[in-house]
Amino acid sequence: MRGAAFSSSVCAAIVIFVLGGCGTGGYTDEGSQGAGKQLFLDANCGACHTLADAGTRGIIGPNLDDAFAQARVDGMTSETFTQVVAAQIRFPIEETSTGTPGMPGVHETLPECEEVEGGVFCVRDQDRAVSDIAVYVAAVAGTGTAPPEQPAPTDGKSIFTANCAQCHVLAAADTSGTIGPNLDQSKPSKALATERVTNGQGVMPSFKNSLDAAQIEAVAEYVSSAAGR
Ligand code: HEC
Ligand code: HEC
Is the CB of 203 under 6 A from ligand 2? Predict the structure, then answer.
């Protein structure tokens, strides 16, 4: 039964994890869910694991949605979750007591590029890759849902690229639209940019219904400081 396998291997992993003195900091604080999803796919974790969010259907290893659904119901915190997954990747049970194939070691699943000959999948920083994948799996396994949509960008440059590029030249953002003024030449103040983005003028649309106040402030700040550079 997968449930039993899960709890025993998790315990073993935690013990090794603690005895190994790895600490917890790097795993839980720094991982990036987006990078982790890409790594999960690139490292071919899905060849052996089913994980709905990643769209994978491997059956050699445990179904990660099933394995973690119960832990989620039982209230395992996301921090613990992340640590457990990281420990599983780092210290997998390579040889199971039943003789069925276990999970390959971390130098096989996530080899560092220094360790391998060119042409095969590898990562530059194994610790980082482990925490990214762990944060990702912990966030999505057993949720039965896709992750929330990417939040709207809050940095001025991304907002500019997404909403303003087609009409304005701004070298710093590498845009070349010619419908509106060349902002490198007109060098608008932050106040003018805020006003235009909020209310629009002539051909320029108002963004007050599509961008929130913080986003308008961010893009205006960005335009006024980046123009002419
Ligand atoms: C060649 C097949 C294979 C590959 C590739 C593989 N795994 Fe596994 N994985 C397994 C097997 C088999 C187990 C069960 C080992 C055990 O606990 O007995 C396992 C266990 C796990 C567990 C613990 C699940 C549980 O129920 O205890 C996690 C988490 C996990 N793998 C994540 C990953 C991630 C992330 C990757 C990619 C970096 C990966 N695996 C790549 C075969 C694989
Ligand atoms: C559909 C094209 C279009 C889009 C999209 C657009 N603009 Fe404009 N923008 C214009 C036009 C046209 C003007 C000139 C309006 C006028 O003065 O009549 C203008 C004027 C401006 C001005 C004032 C420049 C000056 O010196 O007078 C700023 C600043 C500005 N836009 C910033 C932005 C930002 C930031 C965005 C994205 C949030 C954006 N624009 C999106 C067409 C556009």
Answer: yes
**Which one of 2.40.30.60, 1.10.760.10, 1.10.3470.10, 1.20.120.230 gives the CATH number of domain 156-226?**
1.10.760.10
Q: What is the tens place of the pLDDT at every residue in 77-109?
A: 878 888 889 999 999 988 777 777 788 999 999
Q: Which phi and psi (to 5°) does residue 90 adopt?
A: -75, -40
Length of the chain equals 229
Mind giving me the DSSP string for 190-223? Answer: HHHHHHHHHH-BTTBPP-TTTS-HHHHHHHHHHH
- Helices in the chain by DSSP H: which ranges? 2-19, 25-30, 33-42, 64-73, 78-90, 106-109, 126-140, 156-163, 183-186, 190-199, 213-226
pLDDT in tens, 12-48: 444 333 333 333 333 344 678 889 999 999 998 988 8
**pTM score:** 0.52
Determine if ligand 2 sits within 6 Å of the CB of residue 163.
Answer: yes
HSE-CB for 114 with a 13 A CA cutoff: 3
Q: In a 3-state reduction of DSSP, which class is residue 112?
A: strand
Ligand number nearest CA of 197 is 2
Angle at 48 between CA 45 and CA 52, to 5 degrees: 70
The Å distance, Cα 35 to ligand 1 centre, comes to 19
